[in-house]
Design brief:
Chain lengths: ~375, ~200
């Protein structure tokens, strides 16, 4: 069977979706010409798909997918149970009502309070000491934690390394602060720098700074109020970039799963470096990097929008709903499911206190955008209005 | 549509213990269905989502109790195809591919995948000249256009075409033997397909 290189090449490009409209017509005519052509095409096609699927096989992750299936089924069932629950409740109310009518002198009817299971976050964190010992923080009373002859002050919503009663340490000793979903925490480093940690974030730092620079490593989001020291620059290292400062206030958002890394400067000046990139920021400017393409830009922003979270406010400025959902998800420990892809791109502007119940926030979003929310346990479905 | 003999076991298990049956079905078909959905809608995350939703439906509903094992594979792939087309239609995206003939070779190929075939294909590609393997990797695995492949590998468009041809010929040769082997333990299912 003589099949020209041209036709063979054309078939591959048709399969790859890389042929022009005219080429596709040539191809289709060729296929219809006779049985031999058809069989040849089918053989090539089978090899094409088998090859394609085989090289992609490992990219399809199974164990997380199975968990997702179990989870989706679970939330579906819960939805159904809640629905049944409501009709039972309605029946009981009806019965109680009838009792009331028939026995008006009876006892008080119980008040059924429907409470949302979703709660706002709070001061929560785990401190990992150099020995690997984990200390759960966020208890009401203050105490001190001992670390290699060094005491760390532990108060309800922050820990403090700045007390000057420590012994000199030879080698740097590292601690790590991990803030879970639904958590926030404050940290005062040995040099007096204050770090506000947001949910799902971790910071690794030495209990006492030694050497030329004050280096800390961040994953997630934190606001730094760096105490001034011209001689020892303060460096925040993230997966994608380094932020170097002498003394200033700035916010860094560098979530591992996030689409972007953002450095927002409130006061002073910072250097942002990543590979060959080096940018100096001035106040009210933001450095944004696309985590995938590594493209970046420096733009003027309203800084409040980016740092208000540390003051207990969630502030959104024309934020796409999917990003907003990520932020609410981190704080309220919920996950959002969008019933329609396009809803993710709707923009929302507004601010609210983050210690409010989520119902209040959802209500505000509902009343200003074209969506409705349905809360089932910790899963919130976003539907078109 | 082709059928493999383990489909009977999956359905038997489903009737005895639903969760175990779904798990078996998942182990056997999840990857093939996602890969197939991925060729219909070029959004891999969405493909995974659609297939996961489909498994939830299968778990909750009774379809699998009524289906005959000969039609299982057809049923699964047709349902996923429907979900994909619904999704595409809803989002008003032009369908990228057209069915050239009644047999859905993409679905058949996905249904026949096994770890053994996957390993074999990957071994064949690994043995190919380095540049040929790279071209196959760009076009097949990363769904790249020819021109983008040429740019990335810094070769001419004609080189990409030639290497693609060379690579696919080796692959076809390898799979020709494989196909005969597969035919030994599959049966051609009767044409009726149970649709949702």
């Amino acid at each position: 069977m003589a099949i020209s290189d041209y036709i063979e090449d054309l078939i591959y490009r048709v399969l790859a979706g890389d042929a022009s409209e005219e080429e596709r017509q040539v191809f289709e005519e060729w296929v219809r010409e006779n049985e031999e052509h058809r069989l040849f095409f089918r053989e090539v096609e089978r090899a094409w798909y088998t090859g394609k699927y085989s090289v992609k096989w490992r990219n399809v992750e199974e164990s997380a997918a199975w968990q997702a299936v179990e989870h989706k089924r679970e939330s579906r069932r819960r939805k159904r149970i809640i629905r049944i629950g409501w009709s039972v409740a309605a029946a009981i109310v009806l019965l109680l009502g009838m009792t009331w009518v028939f026995f008006p002198s009876g006892k008080k009817t119980p008040v059924v309070a429907v409470q949302s299971v979703v709660k706002p976050g709070g001061a929560k964190a785990v401190l990992v000491l150099s020995t690997g010992v984990q200390v759960v923080l966020g208890s009401e009373r203050a105490d001190t934690i001992q670390e290699k002859g060094f005491s760390i002050l532990n108060v309800a919503d922050y820990i403090d390394y700045s007390r000057k009663d420590s012994v000199a340490l030879g080698r740097p000793v590292y601690n790590e602060l991990r803030v879970p979903t639904g958590g926030e925490f404050r940290l005062v480093l040995a040099d007096g720098t204050v770090v506000y940690m947001n949910s799902e974030s971790r910071l690794k730092y030495p209990v006492r700074f030694t050497g030329d620079e004050r280096l800390v490593e961040l994953e997630g989001e934190a606001y730094f109020d760096v105490s001034r020291d011209e001689v020892h620059p303060f460096v925040v290292r993230t997966e994608r970039l380094d932020v170097t400062v002498l003394g200033t206030g700035f916010n860094v958002m560098a979530y591992k799963k996030g689409a972007r890394t953002e450095v927002t400067l409130v006061s002073g000046s910072v250097d942002v470096t990543s590979g060959k990139i080096s940018e100096v920021l001035t106040p009210n400017h933001q450095f944004v990097m696309n985590n995938e393409s590594r493209e970046y830009e420096v733009k003027t922003v309203n800084v409040d929008t980016y740092v208000d979270w540390k003051n207990g406010i969630l502030n959104f400025d024309a934020m796409p709903l999917d990003e907003l959902a990520d932020k609410l998800g981190r704080w309220y420990e919920v996950s959002f499911f969008f019933s329609k892809e396009s809803l993710k791109q709707l923009k929302f502007t507004g601010a609210f206190r983050k210690y409010n119940d989520i119902d209040y926030i959802l209500f505000l979003i509902e009343s200003t955008t074209n969506v409705t929310f349905k809360v089932n346990g910790n899963v919130i479905t976003v539907n078109e209005k | 549509m082709l059928m493999r003999k383990d489909d009977r076991d999956i359905l038997d298990r489903f009737i005895k213990n639903r969760k175990e049956g779904i798990r078996m079905l998942f182990d056997r078909y999840y990857r093939p269905l996602v890969l197939y959905a991925g060729t219909l809608i070029s959004d891999d995350t969405m493909a995974e989502d659609l297939v996961q939703e489909f498994f939830v439906r299968l778990w909750e509903d009774d379809y699998l109790e009524r289906i005959r094992s000969k039609a299982l594979s057809s049923y699964l792939f047709s349902s996923v195809r429907n979900s994909c087309y619904t999704y595409l239609h809803k989002n008003d995206v032009l369908r990228a591919r057209v069915d050239y003939m009644s047999v859905d070779v993409a679905a058949d190929s996905a249904a026949l995948l096994s770890q053994e075939i996957v390993d074999r294909v990957n071994a064949v590609i690994a043995r190919m000249p380095e540049q040929t393997g790279r071209v196959l990797n760009c076009v097949l695995m990363r769904d790249m256009k020819y021109q983008d492949t040429a740019d990335e590998l810094q070769v001419s468009l004609n080189t990409v075409k030639t290497l693609m041809r060379n690579g696919m010929r080796v692959l076809r040769e390898e799979l020709r033997g494989e196909q005969e082997l597969i035919m030994l333990f599959i049966v051609i299912a009767s044409p009726e397909v149970t649709q949702e």
